[in-house]
Design goal:
The structure is a single chain. With about 170 residues, the protein is an alpha+beta fold. It has 2 domains: about 5-70, SH3 type barrels; about 85-165. The protein has helices at about 90-105, 120-135, 150-165; strands at about 15-20, 25-30, 35-40, 45-50, 55-60. A hairpin with a 3-residue loop joins strand 2 (about 25-30) and strand 3. The model has no long low-confidence stretch (mean pLDDT about 80).
Length: about 170
C-alpha cells in the first residue's frame, strides 16, 4: 500500500506526487474512504486515488506552503518487484554460456540449436553426458577444449528454453 487513507481528512491540504498525470503540487482532500482519497487541485483538476492500485501516486499532508522533501521522485522509482533478477547471474556464468554458444555457432550455425528435432530430449541427454564426464573426474571436454560444466550450463539453458515454451 502506498499510503493509508485513514491518515487523511476532508479539507486537509496535501502535496501530491502523481506520476500518472505528471502533476506535483498542492491539493485539497475532497473525500476519503477505507481504500482511497479524492483530491482537488487549485486549477480545478483532481483525482480519486486508490491506495491499493495506484502505486505511482504519493500523497503527503502538509502544513506549510512549500512541499515536503520527497521520499523519492518518479524518476528514482523502479517498479521491478517480482521481476527476474538477471543482475544476480554471475558474469562468469554468462561468459561461459557465451563461449559455448560461440563454439556452437562456428561448428554448426547461429541459433541452429533451436532447430534440432526432439531437442529437449537430446539436450537433456547431452547435459547428462557432460555431468557423467564430470563425475568421472574429467574437467575439459576433449572435442571442444572447454570445461564440461560450461557445456552442462549451456544444455541446461537450452532445456529451460524449450520447457518454458511448453515444448
Amino acid at each position: 500500500m502506498n499510503f493509508n487513507p485513514e491518515d487523511f481528512n476532508v479539507g486537509d491540504r496535501v502535496w501530491v506526487h502523481d506520476a500518472w498525470s505528471g502533476y506535483s503540487g498542492a491539493a485539497t482532500v475532497t473525500e476519503t474512504d477505507a481504500r482511497s482519497v479524492g483530491y482537488e487541485r487549485p486549477d480545478g483538476g483532481g483525482c480519486y486515488v486508490d491506495s491499493h492500485k495506484d502505486l505511482c501516486r504519493h500523497l503527503d499532508v502538509v502544513e506549510e506552503k512549500e512541499p515536503p522533501a520527497p521520499v523519492d521522485s518518479y524518476h528514482e522509482r523502479k517498479f521491478d518487484q517480482g521481476k527476474s533478477r538477471i543482475d544476480l547471474i554471475p558474469g562468469e556464468a554468462l561468459d561461459a554460456l557465451g563461449d559455448i554458444l560461440a563454439y556452437g555457432c562456428a561448428k554448426y550455425a547461429e541459433d541452429s540449436w533451436k532447430l534440432v528435432p526432439d531437442a529437449k530430449k537430446r539436450y537433456m541427454a547431452a547435459l547428462g553426458r557432460h555431468y557423467a564426464a564430470m563425475l568421472r573426474g574429467e574437467v575439459v571436454d576433449e572435442e571442444s577444449g572447454r570445461p564440461h560444466i560450461e557445456h552442462l550450463l549451456t544444455n541446461a539453458a537450452f532445456v529451460t528454453y524449450f520447457t518454458r515454451r511448453g515444448e
